[in-house]
Amino acid sequence: MINDMSNDIGGIIGVFDSGLGGLCAVREILKIMPGEDIIYFGDTERVPYGNKSYENIRKYGRQSVNFLLSKNVKIILVACGTVSSVALDGLREQFPQVPIIGIIEGACDKAVQIAQSSQNKRVGIIGTQATISKGSFTDYIRAIDPSCEVYSKSCPLFVPLVENGHIDDDITKMAAESYLSELRELDLSSLILGCTHYPMIAAAIGEAIQTNLIDAGAEAAHMLKKVLSSAESGTSSKTAKRKSGGKLEIFISDEGMNFSEIASGFLGFDIKSGISKIDIENY
What we know:
single chain, alpha/beta, Rossmann fold, 2 domains, six-stranded parallel sheet, four-stranded parallel sheet, 12 helices, 46% helix, globular
């Protein structure tokens, strides 16, 4: 359950991920809510999260939320499939003062809609090792429509490939073919990209699987918009129109060599001068 927002809708949208991937959600937010300010945190020092223990994943989630709250954000998008799968409920309990949205609900809702409309109830999910082992996407889909057949696959190499700039090359295409060839034979109605890094290599994934791809980060951005719109509908028109111009601030935990270049290329504008490093262990 998403916590209720206060009557004051002014403030900043907070987004975090293990590294670059959450920028897929940021790009969608910038597209559909251009007047909103965004603070993004990418935990580039500790990426990937998918091979970490559940205990550490929960810790990373808490620290990221604490950092974003220190920036007075009004709502938080957990743009990380691993944290959304392992730690989302706990974060909502620990931080009731702010709505926290994950990437599971929107993506699963979209997958079930496609399955029901196409009368093909076979749904695929790919994600990190922790995401797939936790099974949160699968559980959510089956809770909506128990007749859906859900097939999941961990793709642990995808995040390091993206973080190292292998966006559209032969290495990525070979990895996608290796991971997805079995799922391709199942004739899925859709495939949920259960990690926000994966849309960055959607071309390679789409070539290997040839089905509807669901960008979980983008679907979560649309859910976030609905939450904000609902909050605004309960305020005065003067308050509801209070927007600050669409400023994006980016914070990272380590100055990786490729982050600014890949991020700028993906977002479509130069962010090299707008990135700050923080010590996330202080939070």
